[in-house]
Amino acid sequence: MDTTDDEALIDERARVLALREGAMALLEGIGFPSQYVPEFVTASDFWRAIVYAACDGALEGDVETVARAAAERFPDNQIFEGYLASRIEAGPTYRDRLSEARVAEELEVRETTAPPWPGKRSAADVGHDDHLWDTGGAAALDILGRRLPATTRGPSIIVGGRVRHQQRIVPRCPDCNGSLDPTTVSIRFELAPDATAVQDVPGFHCACGAQWPDPLSMRVAHAAAFGVHPTHGQS
Amino acid sequence: MGSERCFIVRRRDERRIPAELRPSTREEGLRWARDWPTRWPAGVAFEDAHWDWAELIELAEALPSRFACYSLLAAGRLQGLRFLEVSEDEVEQYGTHALRLSTAPWNRKPQLIYRGVGSLLVAAGLLRSQSDGHGGRMHCSSLPAVEQFHADNGMKRFEGLDEEGLARYRFLAGPARVFLARLRIAGYLQDP
What we know:
The structure holds 2 protein chains of 2 kinds.
Chain A: H1 3-29, H2 43-55, H3 62-73, H4 78-86, H5 94-103, H6 135-143, E1 150-153, E2 156-159, E3 162-165, E4 180-192, E5 195-206, E6 211-213, H7 215-225
Antiparallel strand pairs in A: 1-2, 2-3, 4-5, 5-6
Chain B: E1 5-10, E2 15-23, H1 26-35, H2 53-62, E3 67-74, E4 77-85, H3 91-94, E5 96-103, E6 114-115, H4 117-131, E7 138-142, H5 147-152, E8 156-161, E9 167-171, H6 173-185, E10 189-190
Parallel strand pairs in B: 5-7
Antiparallel strand pairs in B: 1-2, 1-6, 1-10, 2-3, 3-4, 4-5, 7-9, 8-9
Helix pairs in contact in B: 1-2, 4-6
């Protein structure tokens, strides 16, 4: 590491320390219960945990109390902006919003793939996937190299009841509907009251600051953390 | 959910929180992956912790005439998920096949933050059954831990067990209407 890198690291550590101290002072100022304050690893994860704890009733006045204080102290905090923008208020239902979007011709294709509440049942479109849900057997057949019946539906291919992507569609950011880019997300599992495991898994990040682990990678990481074989679960 | 509004209740102060029950999207798969696996209480083995909801959502999107997946969102978070089979597999005979239901880790012991999540997800199946012309009839296999819930809510038990050794229950049209009416009286469902 050269001198420039050293200085950059020192600057970054100073920035993180300043953020942490500022955050702690803010929470202390609004009387946020200390038992709900998480470890400060990244600002993004820290504030998300605070927001969720506030939503769950950790603080009188709910999340708005935190948001108001944070907006004053950290005017550029994108976590709060993104979170508050995504809050679900009592308002138009999903059906109303779909109707409005159709009228405004802003409806995205991905919202039309499954009718919310179809008025009548349509004919089943299952063709060759008669072994749907026989997933335990499908895994064994995969190992033996057996040919399995497959069905394609749009971007997905279904083999032996498992959805395998032919052309993976990257979702939008659930918080702000922004586009997502690949990244590595650090995940912490609580294995026991006094034991944690941290893993880096592939995922996505958004300009709003949110980070999302890839679901499949997350499932594998979860199984690995707990020493469970990641088979397709059946009830 | 249809034209009805949904609410869940924050247990700490009995505050009603507006909720939204809607068809699941891939975005909810991301929410599930980020917020659920890391929040399972340490040292507690839940029977459904290994279910891959992101894949079930994909399956419902790929085969919408056979499967449906619904998400319950409130307070900016994914509070629960419901996976249904809406055609085949005895649907004509017994109504919508309720395959999976999971509530978020924070809605279970020891945290139990919100109340009403599981009931609204049951309601999602009943409303879908009504919408599909099955009159609210719905059947399911029951994990041992929730058999009492099914019995307490008027579901009738089938004789015998399914191929996995689980008890099977079903809602008939009448008990389904009663269940939905109770949710409306309790304020979980509300006409617009």
